[in-house]
Write a structure and sequence with these properties.
The structure is a single chain. The protein is about 50% helix and about 10% strand. The radius of gyration is 21 Å and the shape is globular. It is α/β, with parallel strands linked by helices and about 260 residues long. The strands form 2 sheets. Strands 1, 2, 3, 6, 7 and 8 form a 6-stranded parallel sheet that branches. It has a two-stranded parallel sheet with strand order 4-5. It has 10 helices and 8 strands.
Length: about 260
């Protein structure tokens, strides 16, 4: 798999070779432009494709699980209207899940955070603000975001979260540097539903269930009625196919709290 520092090293080596070639002959400027363009494209894709582990390693599945387990994860909550509906559905199907909480939402709805844990689910850090500019934050700002979210949840629950999912699944060197200051495991996914888009429910459920296997981690959101309805169909599919939803930390055999 491609890595940021490997790509940088290769690009720099090629650039220096081009400079040497240019010293002894003529290297067209467009070759330099092409090199920079290719580096930019690879880095941009790597930053938005969390599965690449381009900037830092994340856990995306556990295909070696001895059980028929999958993990359903929810981002962007807790939501006062939709998270309770999600919890009722999970309870009705004897399913466990993991909720990656936005700190400010947890602060506004502490009773829902407590209910999530009381129902036997696990929780993780999804930043304090979930700002659209998160991918452009400096390291210190990211550290502050993660500390704020952890502090809020610890005040509510007494637990220090060790699971983290970057907002929008964006990764970069600043997030990597920030994570070094925490005992946080970055959690990705192997099945992205795109349930926050305008895609119809049928398309979304087909995206999730196509080639779904034990060990997969599914990304959903507890922030819309459409996602709730997708969840209901998904739980029925899992029951029919003898797949048991468990917390992501159980699937990955890691600790969710410090």
């Amino acid at each position: 798999m491609l890595k940021f520092y490997t790509i940088n090293a290769v690009a720099l080596t090629v650039f220096l070779l081009l400079l040497m070639a240019g010293y002894f002959g003529n290297v067209p400027i467009w070759i330099y432009v092409l090199l920079i363009f290719l580096w930019f494209i690879v880095t941009a894709i790597g930053s938005f494709q969390m599965k690449w582990n381009y900037h830092f390693d994340s856990l995306h599945s556990n295909k070696n699980s001895p059980e028929n387990w999958v993990a359903i994860t929810f981002d962007d909550g807790p939501h006062p209207e939709f998270t309770p509906k999600v919890l009722k559905l999970l309870e009705a199907h004897n399913a466990k899940a993991t909720f990656f909480l936005i700190g400010k939402n947890a602060e506004n709805h502490p009773e829902i955070v407590k209910e999530i844990l009381e129902k036997g689910h696990s929780i993780g850090n999804h930043s304090f603000s979930h700002s659209k500019q998160f991918g452009f934050f400096k390291k210190d700002k990211i550290v502050l975001e993660l500390k704020q979210a952890n502090a809020i949840v610890k005040k509510i629950t007494g637990l220090e979260m060790k699971l983290f999912r970057p907002p929008f699944g964006v990764t970069n060197p600043n997030i990597k540097k920030a994570l070094l200051q925490f005992p946080l495991n970055s959690i990705g996914w192997s099945k992205r539903s795109w349930d926050t888009t305008s895609l119809p429910q049928k398309t979304i459920i087909n995206r999730i269930t196509k080639n779904l296997q034990k060990g997969d981690i599914i990304l959903l959101h507890d922030s819309s009625q459409k996602s709730v309805e997708v969840l209901e169909q998904l739980l029925l599919f899992l029951r029919t196919n003898h797949l048991q939803p468990v917390c992501v930390d159980q699937l990955l055999e890691i600790s969710p709290y410090a």
